[in-house]
Amino acid sequence: xxxxxxxxHELLSDLFEWPKSEKDWDQYRLTEDQIAxxxxxxxxxxxxxxxxxxxxxxNKELESLTNPNQPGMELFYDFASNESSNPETVLFHSLGHWxxxxxxxxxxxxxxxxxxxxxxxxDNSVRFWHDQLFCKPAKHGGVVAWHQDYSYWTxxxxxxxxxxxxxxxxxxxxxxxxxxxxxxxxxxxxDKPELAGDMExxxxxxxEDQKKEFKPVPIEMERGYGSFHHPxxxxxxxxxxxxxxxxxxxxxxxADGTKSNTEKELLKGVPIFAPGEKLDGQFFPxxxxxxxxx
Length: 294
Hints:
8-stranded antiparallel sheet; iron ion binding; 4-stranded antiparallel sheet; alpha+beta; Jelly Rolls; 2-oxoglutarate-dependent dioxygenase activity; Phytanoyl-CoA dioxygenase; dioxygenase; 14 strands
């Protein structure tokens, strides 16, 4: 029987060290220029979040997390050995692994991550939404279609969310890196396509002006580096046809005070929060209390 790590809201392992004083946080702060870049373009790439030894430890955990016969399967919110709509390609995708493995639990409380997230959310306290794994094997890794994250998240309001994408492999154009469409976070909320379906499915929802401004940029990064993006940022990734794997995890958060906007469950197995009820407690822990840091 696997213990449900969602009941523990602090570091469990030695993967990270929580700062002991306000001054200790300074090393993790983003610069004013980085924050300005994020607000102008809708994303901020190449932020170092992990050392190589930490990446190696997470990849070791990842080996068992992708096994559909592993203990603790009931703790996943979602698990797809292959979510790709193309039977010739593979896209592993899961949600909820923070409840199963100590390393993937503790990355929620990575000081470099929570400080940057707080700054990009307007210096607000940060609360956890949910995690994701996206793994594309060598030679036949599938696509993640162009989309906006918040188009799948309207069950939570107001829109004060943030996504952080972190590579567990070196990522580049060849092995299916992330792409952003700069300034597309200003386009408003678009309809949602099938996430692992037609790469270009979102195009039918765009205006002619938006199609002209659709100029994706590849986000090539060394493993252990992360990229933050706005909930309305249009992004996606192409197939991995290289000889290398492309493994990545995603941390989704929102500013403290976000509320339910649905009468249904927010994530599979999570108790229902009535519309207007604040999201907190076991499954939406407070990762960073801004009131305690200057």
